[in-house]
């Protein structure tokens, strides 16, 4: 634990130095390096070396079930448990809820034939960046989610949102961002070759080299395909510790504020207003979550029979016929001859397709074996 204290001290020092450094052209380089150091230390905090007695937190790894996973994140008492019991079948937890703040409670939302796993993460993200308490495991579970549903108290304005965003940012979760368009390949020799296809306004070649140096990378190929910031470049180096996840902000308790304020909140990007007590807008919340998850439903049919619309295969967007075969049975692709597809992805119905054909939502497929 001594080791961890040392790191937190270092992080505090660097943050203090960054706060007291003026931001201008002359200090850009210095600040960039400090950011890299900070990112490196944070990564060490989150995945400490295995040597330091790797005690796993008990009762936290939640098995992935269902077709997609949504993590509920928010401060205590914003109504996470209420929404869990409203949307899912996990009613029983409500009574014993005071004591279950430490574990992770999964619930399942049945929606259009698919099962979406909803995880209620304890509201103890604060301090996770310092490696405190259960924070680390909460982060690990949040990383595996396909969508983060951030529950906010509408009566508290924006403060909660900024705090949670900052915490998630520090542990390497990037909300509603695309991975930066930077190509980085680490090599075994030949120094650093640096190119960009557009004018760079945030970083210089010198800064990029210094940051790579800080990470003990002396031979690499770097290509900037967009005008990225220092933080984005560091994200590319640390790409094993970064997750880019869609996030939906749900403002709860809208029955306690004025209608003008509700209107204002509802117009914010990626935001939705709800009330658990009055059961307002909950169906729309589930619909929006589904839209954000970008899932594709595919129905199968046997030869000479109508399609089976009761059970859908739920796949990620961009799924191909090969993915369908794998999700039916793993030996299925070996016996595959061709498939017939009806629906939006077919040029004409039915279209004969091979394994590489991409499917769209609510397609019907019939697989013909050898």
UniProtKB/TrEMBL annotation:
Which residues belong to any copy of the OBG-type G domain?
Answer: 68-294
Descriptive protein name: Developmentally-regulated GTP-binding protein 2
> Does the keyword Nucleotide-binding feature in the UniProt annotation?
yes
Q: Name one GO molecular function term.
A: GTPase activity
Indicate whether GTP-binding appears among the record's keywords: yes
Name all TGS domain ranges.
294-369
| Protein keywords | GTP-binding, Nucleotide-binding
TM spans, by residue? Answer: none
Q: What species was this sequence derived from?
A: Vannella robusta
């Amino acid at each position: 634990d001594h080791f961890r204290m040392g790191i937190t001290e270092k992080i505090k020092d660097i943050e203090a130095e960054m706060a007291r450094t003026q931001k201008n052209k002359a200090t850009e380089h210095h600040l960039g390096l400090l950011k890299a150091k900070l990112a490196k230390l944070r990564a060490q905090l989150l995945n400490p070396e295995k040597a330091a007695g790797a005690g796993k937190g008990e009762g936290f790894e939640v098995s992935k079930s269902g077709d997609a996973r949504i993590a509920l994140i928010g401060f205590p008492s914003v109504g996470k448990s209420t929404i869990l019991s409203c949307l899912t079948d996990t009613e029983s937890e409500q009574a014993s809820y005071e004591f279950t703040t430490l574990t992770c409670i999964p619930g399942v939302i049945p929606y259009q034939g698919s099962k979406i796993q909803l995880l209620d993460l304890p509201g103890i993200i604060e301090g996770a960046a310092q490696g405190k308490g259960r924070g680390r495991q909460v982060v690990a579970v949040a990383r595996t989610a396909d969508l983060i549903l951030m529950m906010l108290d509408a009566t508290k304005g924006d403060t909660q949102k900024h705090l949670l965003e900052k915490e998630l940012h520090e542990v390497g979760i990037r909300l509603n961002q695309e991975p930066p368009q930077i190509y980085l390949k680490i090599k075994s020799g030949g120094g650093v070759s640096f190119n960009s296809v557009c004018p760079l306004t945030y970083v210089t070649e010198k800064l990029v080299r210094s940051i790579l140096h800080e990470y003990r990378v002396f031979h690499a190929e770097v290509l900037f395909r967009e005008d990225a910031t220092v933080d984005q470049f560091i994200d590319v180096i640390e790409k094993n510790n970064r997750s880019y996840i869609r996030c939906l902000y749900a403002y709860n308790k809208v029955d306690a504020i004025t209608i003008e304020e509700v209107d204002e909140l509802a117009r914010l990007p990626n935001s939705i207003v709800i009330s658990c007590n009055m059961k307002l807008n909950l169906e729309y919340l589930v619909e929006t979550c589904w839209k954000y998850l970008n899932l594709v439903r595919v129905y199968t049919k046997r030869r000479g029979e109508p399609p089976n619309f009761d059970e859908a295969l739920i796949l990620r967007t961009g799924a191909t016929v090969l993915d369908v075969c794998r999700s039916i049975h793993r030996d299925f692709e070996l016996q595959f001859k061709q498939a017939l597809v009806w629906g939006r992805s077919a040029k004409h119905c039915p279209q004969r397709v091979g394994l590489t054909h991409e499917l769209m939502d609510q397609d019907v497929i019939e697989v013909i074996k050898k």
